[in-house]
Amino acid sequence: MKVLTWFLGAVMVVVALRLAVQAGVILLWFYIACCLARAPAETLKAILGLVVIGAFASHPLAGLVLGAAVVAAGVTLGQKK
Hints:
By secondary structure, the chain is mostly helical. It has helices spanning about 1-40, 40-60, 60-80.
């Protein structure tokens, strides 16, 4: 009986942690939405930077190609006509 009590306690802890993670993800999405509403360009730059870092970390060649594309797009968009 004692083992069953410990097992049920462990299950409740796991369920509570899972709910906490879900609440954190919802708050994170809300925060991103608020940041996009206040400063869309800066927020998108930060998100794109994180994507580039993630791409470079998981696949170095793809990260380099994506980084080069971002730099090329920045140079192209930054030119004055």
